[in-house]
């Protein structure tokens, strides 16, 4: 069953290997886990619903708890401590767009707010209700999870927007197709959520971001139904599709999504290459993508991430042998691991691998074959479970991500890491920080940074640690040519920093868009755009 | 010198070969050219300017004439007949964004409208002033035509938005880079115009449409300056960049554009392949692009276009030999010519060509090498001059274009062609019609249709012919899953059909966007969105 207070299925309990634990202890000291609250205790706290009785609305306390929070670190702290503070007043799980419409009409009539809910995997507070006087209905799209149509000539698949990653792929795979969108949250996140939050998948180099995959569909809004026709391309004015992408539930609820699919590839393999240092590795990555080498993914870990991954993988004997081998080939301390994917026909894959290896020769990379790549592919969606294991050992883990142009990648990654690493120095508490480039573009790259610190003596103090790290680093990012989010979206957590990125007129354009569709501010208020009442500087982000 | 009443430089006078003329006569009968008006006669008609005296505003009649019309067929008829009906009241050619700002502030203060002007190559009435009581200032960006910065690490070039195609490429080429954006109008159209009208270049398969090339920049609006930062990608809400793309001067004037550039390729070649019939050719094109073959362009002429091109090329002896050769290889009447480009390193090009040839074998294509492809590349921007030659023989030529999903390409192309071909049957006047797919996508394709008919006895009757063909076909397109424009934009000519494509809520979103930036409706009114006062059904499209 899905965990009510953490990630994924509760039958999956990955253990942290002893080498990993030792590695962390050496770096940031020992830790003492905080006690978890029980579900029963939280159920007892849930206040009565303020919503009208309605056959489509479920007001059962456990259901409301299970739709109250996402997966950000403050969400974890709230769920583990039981300090939810606010719950939706009810949850609806409509089976079709008609029922979504009915609920929206009801919201307008009865005066409650609506939060659309996909897989509940937001790490930026997208689906957290605000703590105010207006009742909140969370509309989960989970029942709208079918492949409705597949046009193999135009390669367009139509899905219910609540279809989660595994059901997107299994329903397509049975017909010989793939969407090719694999975010880290793949196991639980949904197609509609990907569109609403402008998601990016690990193989975006081949398949594109969700912006390139989303072809059209249907959005139920408070002003009626918005239909976006599929067109391969158009010059007919600004693209309404692009206004839905990233709208985070503020203009309507996506009910049906048409996406561009691809026949399953003949071959796919993932390879690992190790570079002597960051400088060589980063230059190779930049030049590979700028040379348009036919890769389907590229991920480049910096030196600390490479070392951390080897430690957390366990198998000290194997790792030792590997390190010796790499040292012999010139890659010792400071080495950086690149994982890349090659996808296509047998002939295309053979050619691509030859091209990549030839290209990387001047960068003196050590090619490691497909063994470690296979392992990465097998575990690619398991990372969030590691958070659970670390938590049980008393370690809190969070990630921060951005993207910037190549000329700024090293500088910004350095700033982020230094700020996090020394961010708790006032408590004399080191933080373990490492990064990788997860998505590369000819113009620049995403930077994905993970930071681990021991929980404090209580939940409040732990939250304070997070808040300080998150806020100072977010400000650094937007003040130094980074986007506040490359792949997690804005939600409530990033909303304070959006104006710095978009500028005053850009914000006016977004406000204008939201107002066109939702003048009464009923849909997911506080997400994406902080509302006027919210400009006092108070943040609704964590409820604590 | 640039022609005041037609396309391009007046020193270029391509002749229509005898075979081409004979070919057209056989199909649509002989024609008698209409008499051209002289520039002097038009100068005499220009009314006094209603604008205030200002050092940045030029009210010289000839300058006003030269900025009054674009290059649509009704624009030609207006220019050739001298029936302009309306001229801008003045033209400014500011040297920098600061002067653009000054002019916008003046417009707000004094109450005149503003039309931004790039290369004046619109074929949809983008830059034509409305005939109403408000004075109009046309702001030409022509003096802002420099490469301002080139970041070779992030591969971002910054240009003045008025830089025309040849100056974009020559300034980049000198530094070893290319933008790779080659619309048919390349010789005269500008970077800012491409962005404002969501342009597509012939090699978009490799370089992308302008949506993919435009990275950020500066837009002067009536509410201040909108700065769009460069980011390789972002999930931080709807993309403001995408609101500028296709805004057609309605939200502001693009003054500086940052674009994604690429190092000049090692090799580039254009190849021709001939298929026995449309069905095989279209299937090959669809499957090639869906298989992600590494092509840099693909253009597929249907049978009538193939025959027409061979006739218009002249060289009857060569053509005869070619036809005999093709017939021997199974490609007789009904044959279709595909031109494709291959770009990259020597190794990549060799591999790509091998892949394409192997891929097309089951489609029984006859590969013709690079001779005809070289010729196409040499003449790729000369097509608009052919219009001049046809005009002098009494033939009017216009084009219509759209894009649709693959499952609808044949049907829609058929509808468009039949409607045009028989569109003047009430006058017992045949129309010569042919099409090609100019841009292919995995999801679908653009359809680019050319139609030629003899001018009528006078300008008014000729305009009526055009109007009937244009209006009935535009309605057919939007009622049958086509976009009203894949690459020409909306302007004033396509605005009546936009609501059918965008839907009521989509239109509300566009109106909301324009209102956010320009509540007083001063910037290019009537373009993109028909204004409220214009919903009577009157069209401002042709001024005649």
Could you please describe the fold and organization of this structure?
With 544 residues, chain A is α+β, with helices and mostly antiparallel strands. Chain A has a domain of 89 residues: 2-Layer Sandwich (Alpha-Beta Plaits). Helices cover 37% and strands 19% of the residues of chain A. Chain A is built from 19 helices and 18 strands. In chain A, the strands form four sheets. The first copy, chain A, has a seven-stranded antiparallel beta sheet, sandwiched between helices. Chain A has a five-stranded antiparallel beta sheet with strand order 5-6-10-8-9. In chain A, a hairpin with a 6-residue loop joins strand 17 and strand 18. The two termini of chain A are 28 Å apart.
Compact summary:
Two copies of one chain form a homodimer. With 544 residues, chain A is of the alpha+beta class.
């Amino acid at each position: 069953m899905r965990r009510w207070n953490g990630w994924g299925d509760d039958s999956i309990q990955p253990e942290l290997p002893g080498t990993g634990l030792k590695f962390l202890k050496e770096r940031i000291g020992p830790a003492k886990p905080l006690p978890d609250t029980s579900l029963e205790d939280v159920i007892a706290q849930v206040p009565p619903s303020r919503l009208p009785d309605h056959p489509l609305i479920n007001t059962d306390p456990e259901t409301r708890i299970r739709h109250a929070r996402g997966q950000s670190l403050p969400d974890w702290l709230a769920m583990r401590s039981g300090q939810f503070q606010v719950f939706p007043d009810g949850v609806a799980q409509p089976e079709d767009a008609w029922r979504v419409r009915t609920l929206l009409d009801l919201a307008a009539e009865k005066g409650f707010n609506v939060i659309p809910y996909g897989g509940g995997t937001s790490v930026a507070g997208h689906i957290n209700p605000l703590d105010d006087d207006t009742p909140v209905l969370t509309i989960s799209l989970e029942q709208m999870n079918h492949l409705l149509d597949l046009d193999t000539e135009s390669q367009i698949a139509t899905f219910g927007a609540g279809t989660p990653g595994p059901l997107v792929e299994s329903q397509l795979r049975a017909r010989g197709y793939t969407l090719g969108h694999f975010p880290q949250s793949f196991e639980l996140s949904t197609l509609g959520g990907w569109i609403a939050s402008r998601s990016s998948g690990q193989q975006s180099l081949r398949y594109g971001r969700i912006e390139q995959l989303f072809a059209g569909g249907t959005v139920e809004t408070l002003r009626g139904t918005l239909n976006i026709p599929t067109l391969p391309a158009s010059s007919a004015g600004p693209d309404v599709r692009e206004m839905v992408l990233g709208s985070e539930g503020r203009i309507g609820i996506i009910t049906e999504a048409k996406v561009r699919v691809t026949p399953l590839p003949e071959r796919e393999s993932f390879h690992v290459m190790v570079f002597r240092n960051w400088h060589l590795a980063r230059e190779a990555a930049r030049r590979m993508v700028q040379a348009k080498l036919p890769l389907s993914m590229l991920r480049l870990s910096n030196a600390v991430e490479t070392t951390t991954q080897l430690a957390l993988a366990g198998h000290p004997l194997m790792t030792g042998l590997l390190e010796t081998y790499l040292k012999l080939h010139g890659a010792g301390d400071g080495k950086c691991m690149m994982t890349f994917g090659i996808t296509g026909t047998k002939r295309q894959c053979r050619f691509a691998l030859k091209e990549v290896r030839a290209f990387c020769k001047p960068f003196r990379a050590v090619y490691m074959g497909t063994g470690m790549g296979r392992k990465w592919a097998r575990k690619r969606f398991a990372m969030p479970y590691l958070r659970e294991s670390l938590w049980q050992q008393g370690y809190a883990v969070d990630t921060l991500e951005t993207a910037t142009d190549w000329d700024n990648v090293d500088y910004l990654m350095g700033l982020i890491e230094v700020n996090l690493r020394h961010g708790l120095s006032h408590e004399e508490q080191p933080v373990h920080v490492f990064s990788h480039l997860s998505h590369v573009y000819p113009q620049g790259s995403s930077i994905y940074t993970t930071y681990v610190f021991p929980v404090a003596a209580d939940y409040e103090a732990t939250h304070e640690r997070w808040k300080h790290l998150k806020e100072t680093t977010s400000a650094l990012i937007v003040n130094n040519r980074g986007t506040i989010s490359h792949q997690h979206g804005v939600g409530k957590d990033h909303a304070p920093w959006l104006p710095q990125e978009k500028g005053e007129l850009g914000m006016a354009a977004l406000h204008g868009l939201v107002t066109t569709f939702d003048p009464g501010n009923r849909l997911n208020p506080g997400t994406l755009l902080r509302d006027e009442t919210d400009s006092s500087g108070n943040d609704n982000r964590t409820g604590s």
